[in-house]
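Sequence in, structure out. First:
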Amino acid sequence: MQVPPQGFMPFDTGAIVARLRAQVPELHLVGGAADYAAVKELAAFRTPSAYVVFAEETNTGKMPTGAFACALECQASFGVVLALRHWREQLGEQLHQDARRLVGAVRSALVGHRPPGARVVGWQSGKVLDYDAGVLLWADVYQVLHMLQRPQGDGTC
């Protein structure tokens, strides 16, 4: 199915939210940046939850960028922050097995997925953001190439 160009709008992370909701039913909540920002303390996160946060877009430099450019290829980066139940391990393990499984489920849902109007999603990095005796915040950073494209018929393309 051909998706109509979205103009020069940023990558739509809503497609990533929808993918996680459909593919990882164990998550109680899948939200966006506003949902993530609304939580003021670690203990207030509902676990397990995921928050998709737009990071940045950069021009790949593979296409002309002059005044009348009709299309630009860009790389969008976004993060998925997981709020997971965290048990203090007596064995010194970094992540509990349940947390590891959920990180893996999210990665499996996204790596290789092709959102509308984009190429496949790739994984860049993952790390612990914060933790206490009850909640662990894990962040994975992903990237995806997509086109910024002027709508046809606007007089320039």
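Second:
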Amino acid sequence: MAYSSARLEKYLDYVDWFLNVDRGGIEEAPNGDQYLTFKVTTTNARQDHLESKILTHLNNAVDPDAYGVYTGPTGGQHTSTYTLVLDESNHDIDLISGRYGGYRNDVAGISNRDAAHATQPGYPTPYSIDGLSVKIYDPHATVLGQSIGDWTADWWTWTLQAPLATNPLLDPSGAYANVNNTAPVFFIGGDPGRPEGEEGLHRSFNVPAGKPVLVPLANLASIQFDFDQDHNVDQQKAYIENELATWNNSVSGLFVEIDGVPVRHPENYFVKTDFFSPGEAQPGTLLEAAVTGAVPPAEPGDDLFPTGAAGYYLMIEGLTPGQHILHFGGSAIVPPETTAVTRLDVTDTIFVM
């Protein structure tokens, strides 16, 4: 492909032929990249579909190794921003979603959003993301037919319904990491937290080869014990939303390393569930202990809908057989107290086999 700025205008002329495009001029970044930012505005679902087809076609033409571009929601008026880049590092043209600030020419010139998908099977170049040879899914992705948000709701159901005496969340060594851990995705236990300054958790356990791994950096579930069954569900949901938002505003210092390599911007991996029920509290489970210890106490057979949860999770695929070390955590408040900060710090030595 010829490397000239005229190519940027040519490709944009192609898009402008079909869509309502607001185009800027060619600019130059400090590293020598030339780029052209443009906006596409649609007013109905048919135009959204046309935008998706044209931008996907253009992306395949100029940047065939990257995952693709995000073209926004369908229906109604919507404006999406894109940037065409002449990548000085490899003399190629790249199309990214968003503005040039999200561009990563250290990963073959793809955007931050697309970087998580660059090792997806079917794409010819095995990119290394953040120096890692694994795939980290975008938090909005679908994995094995289910959204990551739904997988996190399953994670909470698994944790809450595990026996209190052998619960993976409370496990100090990893001895209970495989308790009822039979989903198509392997759930990594989280951290109940501790005061600042105390040593974190160190766990060791086996992980089945070939399964994606869900890692909770920091998370919270809100179960409305304080309302009786006749309480207005909308009020329950509003309370949950407020509690999760308050918690999320307190989260800081997120970090995650895979085999000693930091994953950049872990704050980008925020996931929130829809309202769900973790099921009836089974005897001897963490959930039973929670409901009977609530004030006022709930009954083990009570319907615990609505429950809501939010957090920061990595869905990782491609861990090779053998030993790997996951180190992750952060800090957050402990609801309903807004002043008590808990530190989350987990080092998991896992054996994929």
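Remark: The chain is about 20% helix and 30% strand.
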